[in-house]
Design a protein that fits this description.
Blueprint: H1 8-19, H2 23-36, E1 41-47, E2 53-58, H3 65-71, H4 97-104, E3 106-112, E4 119-125, E5 128-129, E6 133-135, E7 140-146, H5 153-156, H6 162-179, E8 184-189, E9 192-197, H7 204-216, H8 218-222, E10 224-231, E11 234-241, E12 246-247, E13 253-257, E14 260-262, H9 265-275, E15 284-285, E16 287-292
This protein binds adenosine-5'-diphosphate and magnesium ion.
């Protein structure tokens, strides 16, 4: 048998199948990048459930043109400065999102650092990269993803209706927004405004409650207990809904570990056990719980 190395672009297209299997995953990667860049405002526009366009603008640290060029290379990241996989404090670190997205779509990155006189734009389409050119843009970054999966038609078939993809996109943004109440988020579906979350001021606790009310609903705050406990180096905080404020499924149970939204069976199970004596087995409490632990645990 002849063994050969796969061309870089094919590797990226294969990786894209795992890293960005649908529009909501693209949105998650790009919004996480904006959060990691220290943005205070993140604006997202999605058209046709993300199939035709996903545009994300932030006012974060931006990139110089040489950094934009590096950012779309596989395994290029600014987030593991000392190569330590134990102390991961940022949302990204694999350096796979941008090259994967650029391998399967028409990607354009426009970015400007705060002190730069102008912005630079890099285009990539189906893995082909053009040299960065000067562009007009305020400090921060704008990433446009058009025609997602045009370069890998087989993946297009897996997409659900625009409506379904859109609700997944919205779900991803809501969860990230709950974990980052001081950052403002907006979401446009075409020209329809789906989310408008202003930056919450004040300390983390009150900011969080205000953001949760904006996302889950005003009545959540009135029907929830504040949780703030610590044990064995683990800190649990957030809000747990009263048993009377319950739902017919677990869609309103939000867990975060070190600032990352997670869906973990063990956490859902622990919650079910905690409410067992207060709730019928087919009812689900509404909670937003934040677990913080030292990264090595
Ligand atoms: N919105 C952004 N603002 C500033 N820098 C960015 C942004 N998006 C990406 N980058 C830079 O590009 C690099 C590669 O991004 P990505 O492919 O998502 O990998 P990762 O987030 O795992 O590092 C990041 O490490 C970061 O330095
Ligand atoms: Mg990333």
């Amino acid at each position: 048998m002849t063994i050969r190395r796969l061309p870089e672009n094919l590797v990226n297209q294969i990786a894209a199948g795992e890293v960005v299997e649908r529009p909501a995953a693209v949105v998650k990667e790009l919004v996480e990048n904006a959060i990691d860049a220290g943005a205070s405002q993140v604006d997202i526009t999605v058209a046709e459930g993300g199939r035709s366009a996903i545009v994300i603008t932030d006012d974060g640290c931006g990139m110089r043109p040489d950094e934009i060029t590096l950012a779309i290379e596989r395994h290029a990241t600014s987030k593991l400065p000392d190569g330590d996989l134990v102390e991961i404090r940022q949302l990204g670190f694999r350096g796979e999102a941008l090259p994967s997205i650029g391998a399967v779509s028409r990607l354009s990155i426009t970015s400007r650092t705060p002190d730069a006189p102008e912005a630079w734009r890099l285009n990539m389409a189906g893995g082909q990269v053009a040299a960065p050119v000067p562009a007009a843009h305020p400090p921060g970054t704008r990433v446009e993803v058009r025609d997602l999966f045009y370069a890998t038609p087989a993946r297009l078939k897996f997409l659900k209706t625009a409506r379904t993809e859109m609700s997944r996109v919205s779900e991803v943004i809501k969860r990230l927004a709950m974990a980052h109440p001081h950052i403002a988020f907006t979401l446009l579906d075409g020209d329809r405004r789906r989310l408008d979350l202003p930056p919450e001021k004040n300390d983390l606790f009150s900011a969080r409650l205000a953001r949760l009310a904006a996302v889950i609903g005003r009545d959540f705050g009135d029907n929830a207990l504040t949780i703030n406990a610590e044990r064995d180096g683990l800190q649990l905080s957030g809000y747990a809904g009263l048993p009377t404020f319950n739902r017919g499924n677990s869609a309103m149970q939000f867990f975060f570990v070190n600032g990352r939204p997670v869906n973990d069976r063990m956490l859902f199970g622990a919650l079910r056990a905690a409410y067992r004596d207060f709730l019928a087995s087919d009812r689900y409490p509404v909670v937003a719980l934040f677990l913080t632990m030292p990264p090595p645990m």
